[in-house]
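User: Hi! I have a protein structure encoded as tokens and I'd like to know what sequence might fold into it. I'm fairly new to this, so please keep things simple.
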């Protein structure tokens, strides 16, 4: 009797895992050949443009990215003439490096040449959405004395793990639903700044809270050595990167309702 082949990962599950790790909305996806300044040759990646960052995966089924590139400061994008058949080449010019992109299998790629040229439009749209959302959130918090219990949709320009809950509620969410993630971004106690609540299991489960101060257009994480970042997406990414993926944004699936989660409302 032949042994059954292990089931392939469901596409939706892969998407949800990537969303949990990156906490960013998806714009484009597809296979790309990428050559960065430190690469000796092109590398073949499944690539996703989430927010303003290109995430590179070893293959289409991987849930953990192997490299990433923030293109928010893209200077220009140039189209190069390629002598290779069925191949389009581009150069992303950034302040600190130039990145070569090659589309070797255009019939299976979502990042077609016409769409790549629209990258500037996507970046501007993303910047505008983030700015408008943060202004609305800031205005709303100034008018509210206490956080409400409404939740932000995971596709909102705010990080997908942002919930307007109290410190106690965030702790209960993490303790009762560990499979959904272990990091929540929430309003701070003064309704102007923010806080990060995390749950880590090293020797035993531990809950920690970190203040994230809104200073001008930047956000500062209050650590022993403060870290200042340009936006809340970068704040979440900092925690994920520094813990090598051990911290994952808390995100409930769109297939679930809040009533199906174990915390009480």
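Assistant: Happy to help. Inverse folding works backwards from shape to sequence: for each of the 265 positions I chose a residue that suits the local structure. Here it is:
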């Amino acid at each position: 009797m032949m042994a059954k082949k292990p089931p392939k990962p469901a596409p939706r599950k892969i998407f949800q895992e990537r969303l949990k790790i990156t906490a960013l909305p998806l714009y484009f996806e597809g296979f790309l050949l990428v050559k960065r300044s430190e690469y000796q040759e092109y590398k073949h990646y499944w690539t996703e443009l989430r927010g303003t960052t290109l995430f590179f995966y070893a293959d289409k089924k991987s849930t953990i990215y192997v490299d990433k590139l923030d293109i928010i400061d893209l200077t220009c994008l140039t189209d190069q003439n390629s002598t290779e058949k069925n191949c389009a080449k581009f150069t992303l010019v950034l302040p600190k490096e130039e990145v070569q992109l090659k589309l070797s299998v255009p019939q299976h790629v979502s990042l077609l040449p016409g769409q790549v040229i629209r990258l500037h439009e996507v970046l501007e749209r993303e910047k505008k959405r983030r700015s408008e959302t943060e202004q609305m959130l800031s205005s709303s918090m100034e008018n509210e004395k206490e956080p409400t219990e409404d939740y932000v949709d995971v596709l909102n320009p705010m990080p997908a793990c942002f919930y307007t809950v109290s410190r106690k509620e965030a702790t209960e969410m993490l303790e009762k639903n560990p499979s959904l993630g272990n990091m929540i971004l929430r309003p701070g106690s003064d309704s102007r700044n923010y806080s990060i609540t995390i749950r880590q299991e090293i020797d035993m489960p531990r809950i920690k809270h970190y203040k994230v101060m809104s200073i001008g257009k930047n956000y500062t994480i209050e650590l022993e050595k403060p870290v200042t970042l340009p936006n809340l997406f970068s704040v979440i990414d900092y925690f994920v990167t520094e813990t090598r993926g051990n911290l994952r944004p808390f995100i409930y699936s769109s297939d679930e309702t809040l009533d199906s989660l174990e915390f009480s409302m």
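A useful reference point when you look it over: The longest strand covers residues 205-215. Feel free to ask if any position seems puzzling.
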